[in-house]
Amino acid sequence: MEYVGIQSQIRKNNFISVVLLFAFPLLLLGMVYVFLLWTEKDLQTEANQAFIRVFPYVLSGVGCWFVIAWFFNASFIRLATGSKPLERMGNKRVYNLLENLCIANGLATPKLFVIQDSSLNAFASGLRENNYSITLSSGIIEKLDDAELEGVLAHELSHIRNRDVRLLIISIIFVGIFAFVAEIAFRSLRFAGGGRKGGKGAGLIILVAIVVSAVCYLVSMLLRFGISRSREFMADAGSAEMTKNPQALASALRKISADPAIEAVNSRDVAQLFIDNPKPSAHGFSWDNLFATHPPIEKRIELLEQFV
């Protein structure tokens, strides 16, 4: 893999964050316009007029959604994962490892949280320096030795330093908009008609809305997946740079891969933040089976073990 300097990666992630801030609202507006083209009788003229009318409402809705998610994302993530602050008195080992890494690399120390689960996983979150945090499962704290746990903490610190966390959360926020719109359209289709006059026409319009929103949702997911894989390799490299011990992270990843599933976390969006996002069940169809958010952990281990 081509080497990319840390500062170059940070600039790249900041640039992509700005692009996403514009790309996702534009995609949403495009979705609205296509829907109007399908539903208005005099296509071009009426669609344009309707689009001008709804334009400020769409942007206002996106803005409100983003502002709420920006300021309360940390609370939402804690609710979704059931995480609690990690008590310092009983976990001095974890705090010492994290603080030594932060001091050595000139980084502010993020908050520490824990999920009470015997499985092994961890993730970083936060959009601003004052709410950056690292969340660990109780299993990963108990089952990794000091060197392995230090490698995991350095991996998550690398995500924070590289602005990966900010970039991914921004993409999750906007993909959530399309998921919400698609869900509303689907539920509306279920209740459309009901024997009323014009029910079939209403159902057709909502069906069009489902198709349009589903396509835009897929495109938005592809935009996110385009940036999600390489960030794991970069964070692994950042961990190796911080600890000077790539073998420790490789050993940690091998243990994590044996039992990464946190039962308390049902949200696929939150699971994408984890150091390893386990593949969904093979039963039934899932878009996640087609588009993985993480590179194969075996490949990550192989790259780390090339360094001696």
Topology readout:
Blueprint: H1 6-39, H2 43-81, E1 84-85, H3 92-105, E2 111-115, E3 122-125, E4 133-137, H4 138-143, H5 146-161, H6 164-191, H7 199-243, H8 246-258, H9 268-271, H10 287-290, H11 297-304
Parallel strand pairs: 2-4
Antiparallel strand pairs: 1-2, 3-4
Report on the structure:
Helices cover 69% and strands 5% of the residues. The chain has 308 residues and is mainly α. The protein has a 4-stranded mixed beta sheet with strand order 1-2-4-3, with helices on both faces. Strand 3 and strand 4 form a beta hairpin. Helix 1 (6-39) crosses helix 2, helix 1 (6-39) runs antiparallel to helix 7 and helix 3 crosses helix 5. The model is unreliable at 193-200 and 280-290 (pLDDT under 50).
Features:
mainly alpha; 308 residues; 4-stranded mixed β-sheet; 5% strand; single chain; 4 strands; 11 helices
